[in-house]
Amino acid sequence: MPISGTPSRSELIQHLTATRIAGDVATPRENNLSHYRKLANGDRHYWLGLELGDRWSDEQDVLAVMAERVGVNDDPGHRYGQDTIDPELTVAALERMAGRLRKAADGRQRVLLATGHPGGLLDVHRATAAALRAAGCEIVVIPDGLTTDEGYVMQFADVAVLEHGATLWHTHSGEPMKAILTALEREGRPLPDLVVADHGWAGYAGQHGVDSVGYADCNDPALFIAESEGTVQVVVPLDDHVVSPRYYDPMTAYLLAEAGLDAQ
Known about the structure:
This is Phosphatase. It holds the Pfam family Phosphatase. The protein has nine helices and eleven strands. It has helices at residues 9-18, 29-40, 59-69, 87-106, 118-134, 175-186, 199-207, 221-229, 249-258, and strands at 23-24, 84-85, 110-114, 138-139, 146-148, 151-156, 159-164, 167-169, 194-198, 212-216, 234-237. A hairpin with a 2-residue loop joins β7 and β8. The mean pLDDT is 96.
């Protein structure tokens, strides 16, 4: 660690487990279950820009989706302590995401990248943007002057983020993506063909009918529910803020290699 170059599948699984991006993750079981319950109770903060209606009002249904798609413990009686993300599911989702990135590159599509977790995932998205641009994609430039109640919607290194008090801001909200898509429509500009994001940025885009792929932690069930319903195309399960953002580099290299893109 760090792995130089592009890891094999087995090397990546070992790396994800060693860095706790997957495997025995830092997010405790009680935090996961609390978020599942709040989503089921209709707390829109946990809906991540999606409209879930009353379809997911049973906490156990949410847990079942998370066990299937993320690999958390499926025992409802396990209330405290360690929880898990299955690294095999992480890599399988990366491979599905790579297929969608390849489609974007082949079609020279318009792609918008965004993150609500800049402390962990900003460079994952930046590298993806650079590789897609090198392959001929148009990386969408967001309109100027966009704001939400939380701050300013900005773009750094081709990645849309929320800025507040001269600091890049962690947000679960879908409002920043709403601001971008609304402004593009208002200006008569085409919407993205693909959004690569996380948190509410990915959720709102999918809800708005834009192809959306992204990343989510085991305590953020909404995107995995959206994937199960087909609103979001691919969601990669991972711990979205580990000790060092460099730990994500081998994962990014694997993703771009699987997509047939050159890492930049």
